[in-house]
Each structure stands twice: as structure tokens, then as C-alpha cells.
Amino acid sequence: MVREHRIRLGLVVSRRDLLIDPWAIIILAAGQGTRMKSRVPKVLHPLGGQPLIRHSTGLARALVPQRPPVVVVGHGADGVRAELGDEVEYVEQAQQLGTGHAVLQARPALEGRAAQLVIFYADMPLLTRETVQRLMALHQEKGGPLTLLTVIADEARGFGRIVRDEAGRILGIVEEAQATPAQLAINELNPGVYVCDAAWLWPRLASLPLSPKGEYYLTDIVGLAVAEGVGVETCTTDDPGECLGINTRVHLAEAEATLRGRINRRWMLAGVTLLDPATTYLGAEVEIGPDTVIYPNTHLWGKTKVGQECIIGPNTLIRDSTIGNQVQIECSVIEGAIVEDKVDVGPFAHLRKGAHLATGVHMGNFGEVKNSYLGPGTKMGHFSYLGDAQLGENVNIGAGTITCNYDGVRKQRTVIEDGAFIGSDTMLVAPVRVGRGAKTGAGSVVTHDVPPESLAYGVPARVKKSPGDGSATASSSGQDGT
Hints:
alpha/beta; UDP N-Acetylglucosamine Acyltransferase, domain 1; 2 domains; twelve-stranded mixed β-sheet; eleven-stranded mixed β-sheet; 9 helices; 44 strands; elongated
């Protein structure tokens, strides 16, 4: 026996063995974006450190976490698939025949599988969860087949006009290209966010009229609903910035400024000091602890996490890195690195992928670390490079030290044990090990392992003779570097 329920928020319909989700999201991402003047698909242009499409899919997951959104792709579909992978469900609009035709492509994927649909565009990255949730709640409350978002704005930005009768009932949406002068003066606009009952929508999409441009407009479903005498509800926002659609790079810059303002305000209210919010750039996924101070012209991007009571900047870029508590980083670049508590870095330092600075490390100006671990309390002087190295505790790295980690074929490791002292301008030709408490003289070229508690100096480095020791050459247990 078939059991079927009309559902509202939170209730699942059972139809034979098929579970029907209460909600599904459709994201329209098939447009060409010709006004961007770019070979890159519009929805892949970055905003706040993420492609535009990522903002839309993030909103979709927040609204309907129980099922992936359906993304309608067309132009640049391969790039969108490469970016999102299997995080979403794809349907393709092979022919660009308008927004109504684009939504219709999702019918095979969703008909009988979702009772209510939320539809919006991938180029509206500033749309907030709170606004769409209000729209969904109104749709639930009124019980009509169609509810849409409108915005009050003096600048139309190409949006269609909401036409109402004298009683305030919606009559339809007129696209800007077809609007009369009187209709163009209307400041209630349609940004293109819809909530629909799926069972009502699917057959109506199949009967949309053809526009003068030869396309099927999703906006015409409003006229169809009015003609049927069914209710069309609207939820209005007076924040035009939230409904900014990205059509040009000018719009992209405007959206970037708006998003930056939102993110910066959120962190300031959470206890982070931004000395100049206008020149502080924080990605949407960044996390920052309270009492941290961010100086001007600082960029934090990707999955960066910054702890408490840090001082970051000025003129600093940190990407996909973890920064501990009470860390100071000045005028430096940090990428894919881990910095533990009470570390100071810079100015003009560079931490590359795989760098790991343990608690209390000091890294001086113009230093670079790549794929290396610096143990607690280690000090790295200025103008030094450590690549593919493992350093113990309380090691001293003199100015100008270089680990010669590449032999022309493979990367080789350098190991420097606890308490070692590396003199200025030392070249450590990997693979090589410097033992616990050992020292190298300034300007040494170390090509063999240095025993613990010994002194190596010279070119090539030799170990200083000890009383009763007939050998003056460093231990040859390591291989020659190149």
C-alpha cells in the first residue's frame, strides 16, 4: 500500500520504499559569465579565498545538511566538477536555454525524492543562511506552492522588477529588458531566490512560455501561479549587499569588500583586535583566538588557525597554517606550516610547506625553513636556510647557515641533535648528522657526520683533535653530500 504525506519542515515522506527528503537545494551554475572577460568560469573566480561556488555550496550544506545540493552545470562544467568533486550532485544543462530550463534539468534527479526546493544562483556569494531560513519558514507557515525573496534597492543591477496590484498582491516579475519606464522605477527587485513545492513546480517548468530572447525564464513561474489563483508569498530584505550577483570584476571587488567587512566584524566582536580592518584580509575558514592583535596589511587564508594573545603583522601572509598561542610574526610569509606556542618569527622570514617550529623557537629575519622540524628553544639566526632538516632542542643556528639538501637527484636529510651550535656561514651537505652538543666553526663545509661534543671546522670540515686522538677528520659514518 502506498502511504504519502504532505510534509513540512523536519518530516519525512514515505512512498513505498522511497524516503522523500523534506528539502533539497538547487544551485544554478551553468552560465557563461561573459561579462567577467575571462577564460575562467565565473563561479570559479575567488572571493574571500574561495571560489564563488564554494560560498554557495557552503550555504546549501548549512541549510540542508542531510543531503548534498544539486548543482546545475554547463559552461566550465569540468572545472566545477574538479573543484567540488563528489561533494554535490551534478546535472548538466547542455544548451543554455534560460534559468527555467536550467532548473528543469534537475527534475530527473529530484522528482519524487524531495518535497520542497530552495533555488538560488552560484554567483550570489553574500546570501546569508538567516535570510534563506526566514524564506523557508515563511513558506512553511503560509503553505503556498511558491515563496520568493525580494530586495529593496535603488540600484537594480539588472534584476527583474516585482509588480504588485493596488492591494499589494504580487502579479508577476518583469525582466529589466522587457520593463516599461514605469516598471523600471520600481525598487522592489527579484534577486532570484525561490522556495517551491516540488510537486507543483515540475509540471509548471515544462509549460513555461518562450521569452523574446528564445529562453525559458524561471521568473515566469510567478505569473503561472498568479494565473492559477494560488498564493505567491514574498520575504523581503532591505540589505542590497546580501543580494549582490557577480557579473563583472567590479561586482567581485564590491563583494570582496562586503565579505571582508562581515568577517572582520565577526572576529572583532569575538575579541580579536584589528588595528586597521580596511587593510586586514581574513579568509572565511580562518580561526583566531581572543586577545590576538592583527596589524595592517596582514592576510590570513585557507584553513589557517591562530591561537590566543598573538601579534601578527604587519605585512604578513599566512596560508593553511597552524599558529599557537603568544606567537609573534612580523613581515613574513608562512605557508602550510605549524608554529607552536611562544615562537617569534621575522621580520622577512619564510616558512614553507612542512615547516614545524616547536615551542619557544626564535627564527630571525630573512630566514627560510622548508619541510623541517626545529625543536623547543632552538634559535635560527638571520639569512639562513633549513630544508629537509630535523633539529633537536636548544640548537643554535648561526647567521648564513645552509642545509645543502638537494644532490641534483634526491632531497637529503640533515639531523642536528640537542644543544648543537652551528657557526655562521656553515654549509651542511646532506645527508649529514651533527651530534648532541657538537659545534661547527664559522664558514665550515660539513660533508661528514660530526660526533657529539666535538668541534668541526674548515673546508672541508675536520674535527678538532682531542688529547690522545690521532685522527683529525670528522667521522665518515655519513655519506658524502653533493
